Amino acid sequence: MINNKLVTFTTGDIIAFKIILHNERGDVLTDAGDFIKMWMTEKGAGSVGYVVDYGNGTYIGVIKALWSGSPHIKISLSFPKESIGLFVNYIYRNGMLRTLKGVFKNARGETGKGLCGIHTLTKHGICDFTSLNYGMRWFCSLPDAPGFKCSDWYAVIGDMTVSTFTKTQKHFISSTSNKIIKEIKVEVHGDKTIDHPEYSCRQINPSVTWNISSPVGYFYNKTWHNLLCQNTVEPSYNRYLSCLRNREIYMVGDSTVRQWLMSMAEILNLALSVKRTSAALRGYHHSIKACSKNKRDNITVTWAPHEFPFFTYKPNATIHNFKPARYHLNVIRSKNPIVVLHWYVHIGLVPLSVYEEHVMNAKDSIVEFLDRVPGAKIFIKGPHNLEHNNGVPYDFVRYLQDKIIFKIFDNIKHKVVYLNEWDITVASESKAIHPSNDLIHQMVHDLLSYIC
């Protein structure tokens, strides 16, 4: 039930709704914990609101009218608390939502597999690989067959045959999650859009980007408009080229960060170190470089997968491909590098304490790195909206991950830019693990607005 009788507003108005949830019998819910999402959309336009949980089954949804038109406000139940409970209980009981196995190969050429994870789930032949994971906990058990030792570990592969939730649990999660519970058409009169910020993104203090309140931007005419600062960069080959000439860009994360590398390679006509299309790169976890074809431009973009846990279902990369921010920051030698770091989907499959451990490890290495390379620009790519049937309540995961990283980076947020990808993906109604190429281009353009 939504309590708000007004349907006509003026550009800049704050629109608030009282949201009361009911169960399937129609009874009003009196407890908290459900995750609700709210956004406004119209052809070529979109923005995000926020929802406050009052702890008694009542929620307040708040959204700002950022442009004039006839948009729809959509409110969805992202995940009920029962689905969140299933997820949390499973990962704390089993360590990870998905099964990952270590691949071992001994001197005789024999291969075998052993269970890997963030803690020891078995007493059989445990190998402690925490030091190989740069101090972040990681263990694998030896294969059941004799003749293997820990030094024989060389790759990992996911095992999708291992069941997680029961059939009943899976049905409950799929039938109750990511459901639109209300859609309201409103009329917004007045100015075409609200006023834009005065200062360019390159001029602002990075601490401004650590803004916990939505919206931080909105779509209008299919273009993302930043509300924290003004993007003054023309999205053109020549403008990007002049900005990035003689620069090195390092990106460490998952395949969504690899999409950023592919976007920059396309925009700047860079030569890739691998001859594969974006689609063919799915599941490819070797480091990738993109370099200027004209050596005078001297632009290099490098992507590498982050450390374990990293779930892959194609054993085409050895364990030495998966390294954390600390490793990559230690090998950077340029004076003005651009560094993008990201953790989300893979580390979202494990307890939150693991995410905290990895972010702390990265933060400490960033402090050391900036002391050594003060001309570097560091960016944290935040989580994006996605809807997947794997049982992960990503709205919940994102909410808690943001709380942790905002707290950990609080004393260096004036040196690091936080890129809010949640608002841009919710506003555009993007639901895929891998956002569209058009949306990736908008994200990269937003990144470059803080550099150029």
TrEMBL record:
<dbReference type="InterPro" id="IPR057106">
    <property type="entry name" value="NXPE4_C"/>
</dbReference>
<dbReference type="InterPro" id="IPR026845">
    <property type="entry name" value="NXPH/NXPE"/>
</dbReference>
<feature type="domain" description="NXPE C-terminal">
    <location>
        <begin position="224"/>
        <end position="452"/>
    </location>
</feature>
<dbReference type="Pfam" id="PF06312">
    <property type="entry name" value="Neurexophilin"/>
</dbReference>
<dbReference type="Pfam" id="PF24536">
    <property type="entry name" value="NXPE4_C"/>
</dbReference>
<protein>
    <recommendedName>
        <fullName>NXPE C-terminal domain-containing protein</fullName>
    </recommendedName>
</protein>
